[in-house]
Every structure is written in structure tokens, then in C-alpha cells.
Amino acid sequence: METVQVQASRDYPVHIGSGLLDRCGELLRNITDSRRCCVVTDTTVRKLYADRVGRSLQDAGFTPLLCTFPAGERSKTLSTYGEILEFLAANHLTRSDCILALGGGVTGDMAGFAAATYQRGIDYIQVPTTFLAASDSSVGGKTAVDLEAGKNLVGAFWPPRMVVCDCDTFATLPPETFADGAAETLKHGLIADASFFRRLLAENVHGWLPQAVRRNVEIKASVVAEDEYERGRRKLLNFGHTLGHAVERCSGYRVPHGHAVAIGMVLVTRAAERLGHTPAGVLEEILEANRRYDLPTACDYSAEELLDAAAGDKKRSGDHIDVVVLREIGRAETVRLTMAELKEFVEAAL
Ligand SMILES: NC(=O)c1ccc[n+]([C@@H]2O[C@H](COP(=O)([O-])OP(=O)(O)OC[C@H]3O[C@@H](n4cnc5c(N)ncnc54)[C@H](O)[C@@H]3O)[C@@H](O)[C@H]2O)c1
Ligand SMILES: [Zn+2]
Q1: Do 205 and 128 share a domain, yes or no?
Q2: Which entry of 1, 3, 22, 186 is 20 to 30 Å from 250 by CA?
Q3: Ligand nearest 144 Cα, by number?
Q4: What CATH number should be reported for the domain holding residue 6?
Q5: Ligand 2 centroid vs 104 CA: distance in angstroms?
Q6: Distance of alpha carbon 63 from its chain centroid, rounded?
Q7: Which of 73, 102, 126, 130 should be mutated for ligand 1, with most atoms under 8 A from CB?
Q8: Mean pLDDT on 18-27
Q9: 86-136 pLDDT, tens per residue?
């Protein structure tokens, strides 16, 4: 097991390794006196892993509870979030108990938001079971649910007490869900570490997963340590996301997050190359990387549809929006666009 320490408003460890699902209880016991722990998970992950986690919690002296919701982004709503809160209340969970988010980013974001708000905030830990959640969403303390109007529009910053990534769980992921994690991994290389990005191109990440998760977590942790509340540098993690979220929304959330981000990185970089923000040649490398990891490189939506969806993004403030572009591979910056410039930008992206 390897551990990366995240420095935030409250520091927490991220444990990465093999066989860690069976050690959740013991690892949690080291950091809390809680007696009860509510495992929040989705229907798919419940069948695969909830028993093992429950047993591990029991062996460490916890009383586990299990709260399940239907798998998929379309569950990431106020209504499912409300059901989780009602479950916690009906079972008399108190602030001295804790929540364990077992699953992908949807589970982590939603269980984290329930933890942030139930009785004004209770402890939770993240146990990611997707490559995406282990490499990105479980670290950094952003929690959220979607609204009809757009992605992640309601949420809170609420750091977990601990993250436990068992990389063995990726073995049961459908290939397209694995690819979602590859998209955020490529993103980390593109914005912060050119040699990581080039290694992802040269050697299939399946052969070095724990190392890749570790590098992802280190990159994210360093950004979060500097700017936990996204006033500046943390915005760079949104590379590909303004247009990615627009694609997700246009598809009625049928295009999964990582696939949408992969398309978003292509679109934003094509526009940025055409408009002189990004040097020529970067787009070609991103296209190659997406193909390598079976990620899409285009979508069928019109500039108008994308613009409409992007205008509701929360990266927008007043009459402008911050879009992240690459100055080179491994170095990103935000550019501030007026809504008129965004229109020109989206047209140049297609
Ligand atoms: N909070 C953040 O900082 C942050 C960062 C990136 C993404 N996100 C959010 O994360 C979400 C996407 O996360 P995701 O891709 O993990 O989605 P997800 O949680 O929906 O998981 C994808 C699918 O894989 C299934 N699954 C999970 N683990 C499995 C396993 N080990 N074996 C087999 N199937 C498994 C799930 O049941 C689900 O059907 C989006 O909502 C996105 O907005 C949040
Ligand atoms: Zn993302």
C-alpha cells in the first residue's frame, strides 16, 4: 500500500494498493471512534463489493448500514440525495457516526454531499471503485448533484477523512467505464506533467495502474493544496470540462462524464489552436491519445446546441466564462471569454 497525504483545510491520507477493500474497516478504525458506518453505494457496486466492505467494517467493530441507489449519472439528482438523507435520519445516524462512499464518482459526489449537509456535516470516507473516481473525483473534497439546468450545480466543498483506492476493483469495470478514467488521467498529464502524458501514450496504463493512480492523486493533491476552493489554479483541472459538460447535457447524460471530457479536450484545443492560444500540433497528440484509449474524438451537436448548454455552466461568472487552454503539453492557463467570444470559440471548435 502506498499513501499520498492531501493538504487541505483538513489533511487526509489517500491509500492506494491491492486488496484494500478487506482493510477498509481497519484503516477507518485508525482514524475514528465511530460505531456505526453507513455504506452508500449503487446497485451494481453493491452486488460486487458491498459484502466484503461490510465484513471488513464488522471485523473492525463497526455496525454497518447499507444505503443503495440505482447505478448511473441519471441518479445524481436532488431526489436521490434526499433519499440518502432520509435513510440516514430514519436510521438515527448521528454526527459521531460516519459515511463510506463505495463506488464511482456518482456515488462519491452524492454521498459526499449528503455527508456535507446531514446534520450540518458528518465524517465520510471515499472508497472509489472506478479508475475515474480513484484518479480524480474521490480526491479534492468537491461534492455535488446535478440539476436539470446543468451538471454539479448544487454541492459543497467537504473533504473526506480518508480515501482508500483498491486498484483490484478496476478489473470488473466495463471497458468504456475504464476509458472514462483514462480521460481524466490524460487530462492530468496534459495540464501538469508532459512526461506522464507521454508515458500514457507509450505504455498502456493497464500495465501500471497503481502508479498511474498515484501520479493522478499527486497532481490533484498539489493543485488542491494550493487552491482548495477553486479561486485560481484549481480551475485548470476543468480543462475540457466546459464543453465536456455541454456534451453531457446535450446527450441527456447518456454520454458518460469521461467520454464527454475526452471530446471537450479535443474541441477546446481545436478552437484554441485556430484562435492562437495553443501551438499547432497539440491537438494531434490529444486525438492520438483518445484513440489509444478508445475515447471519442467528436460529437454530433451543433455549435448552437453546445453554446446553449455551456452558457449554463458554473464556470460562467456574469457575462464572461473562464476556459482552460494548453500553452503546451503539460502547461495550462485560463482565458477569460465574453459570451460573444465564447460563441466564436465554440464555432472554431467544430
Ligand atoms: N468531485 C469531483 O472532483 C469530480 C471529478 C471528476 C468527476 N466527477 C463526477 O464523477 C462522475 C463520474 O464518475 P464515474 O465515471 O466513476 O461514474 P459512476 O459512479 O456512475 O460509475 C460508472 C459505472 O460503473 C459502475 N461501477 C463502478 N465501479 C465498478 C466496478 N468496480 N466494477 C463494475 N462496475 C462498476 C457504476 O455502477 C456505474 O454504472 C460524474 O458525475 C462526474 O461529474 C466528480
Ligand atoms: Zn471531470
Answers
A1: no
A2: 186
A3: 1
A4: 3.40.50.1970
A5: 12
A6: 29
A7: 130
A8: 98
A9: 999 999 999 999 999 999 999 999 999 999 999 999 999 999 999 999 999
Placement of cell 431526489 in the chain: 79
What are the pLDDT digits (tens) for 148-174?
888 899 999 999 999 999 999 999 999
Q: Determine, yes or no, domain membership for 178.
A: no
Q: How many domains does the chain have?
A: 2
Active site residues: 120, 142, 184, 220, 230, 234, 238, 241, 245, 257
> Which of residues 128, 146, 172 is at a domain's end?
172
pLDDT over 90 (residue 331): yes
Distance CA 174, CA 301 (A): 26
C-alpha cell at 33: 471512534
Q: 51 lies in a domain?
A: yes
Q: Worst-scoring range by mean pLDDT, 33-37, 66-70, 317-321?
A: 317-321
Which cell numbers in the block locate residue 276? 492562437
225 in the same domain as 129: no
Residue position matching grid coordinates 460505531: 35
Report the candidate in 290, 283, 262, 263 with the shortest Cα–Cα distance to residue 329.
283
Report residue 138 as a C-alpha cell.
474521490
Q: Are residues 105 and 216 in the same domain?
A: no
Q: Which domain holds residue 13?
A: 2-172
SS3 324: strand
Closest ligand 1 atom, CA of 180? Answer: 15
pLDDT in tens, 197-225: 999 999 999 999 999 999 999 999 999 99
The DSSP letter of residue 336 is: E
- 301: CA distance to ligand 2 center in Å? 20
Q: How many A from CA of 144 to the centre of ligand 1? A: 13
